[in-house]
Amino acid sequence: MSQAATIRTAIGAVGTALLLTAISPACADDPAKILKSMADYLASQKSLSASFDSDIEIITPELQKIQFASSGQFKLSRPDKLRVRRTGGYADVELVYDGKTVSLYGNDAKSYMQAAAPDTVDKVIDTLQASSGAAMPGTDLLLSNAYEELVQTATEGKHIGHGVVDGVECEHLAFRTADTDWQIWIEIGASPVPRKYVITSKTLTGAPQYTLRIKDWKTDAFADPDTFVFKVPAGATKVTLDSAAMIEFDELPPGTPSGAKK
Q1: CATH code: domain of residue 118
Q2: Which domain holds residue 84?
Q3: What is the pLDDT of residues 11-52, one digit of tens each?
Q4: pTM of the full predicted structure?
Q5: Can you spell out the DSSP letters for the chain?
């Protein structure tokens, strides 16, 4: 995720203008309009939760494409609470942000990290990705300014048509940037939530992809007061929040070349 976010930030808001001039703003199937309705809907929800399945591809030196799969859940309470759990073949990790402190726990590593955190979820996501490169699949969709972040480097946007993801009918959109192509499937109806998100790296041999499927969306308030409280597991060791320690928290085995990670 951090790769595409860095690219978008470097190019800036010029891409938004290019995208909007590449399509007709009057069209009912305007991809920018559909994407903005999704972003506005998510940003307007004080509480959000969902589960997800993610696949990240890598290309080996022998040009073999290998895919690694993970699953997880997230819970968000705006503006300053977040909990994410992800389990895969090489990591079982949990992130908890309580408005003051961010904690990361690795069940396989039996270690955790803690640091003082900024005062919003948006700032925490930006800080974590900038300082550690932590894999946080699809968190750009949860930002309060998700629309601006998503389209600011886009040079082209298309409404492909309709698709069905996990039995749910969706609008299928496709966008292009200089370095990545990305697609998103957005539920049709009163709750335009993202159901599938695919990022393709165009600058890497074999065009590896990152695929995210999101389901079980809920907007109910969290009744449990401990939802965003981190409790240190018995026997866990505290480690420093740095890039070396973050290897234990990655979706890929140590030493694996990265693919289309965002």
Answers
A1: 2.50.20.10
A2: 2-249
A3: 343 344 334 434 433 344 799 999 999 999 999 999 999 999
A4: 0.83
A5: -HHHHHHHHHH-THHHHHHHHHS-TT-TT-HHHHHHHHHHHHHH-SEEEEEEEEEEEEE-TT--EEEEEEEEEEEEETTTEEEEEEEESS-EEEEEE-SSEEEEEETTTTEEEEEE--SSHHHHHHHHHHHH----TTGGGGSTTHHHHHHTT-SEEEEEEEEEETTEEEEEEEEE-SSEEEEEEEE-SSS--EEEEEEEESSSTT--EEEEEEEEEE-PPP--TTTT---PPTT-EE---STTGGGGGSSS-TTPPP-S--
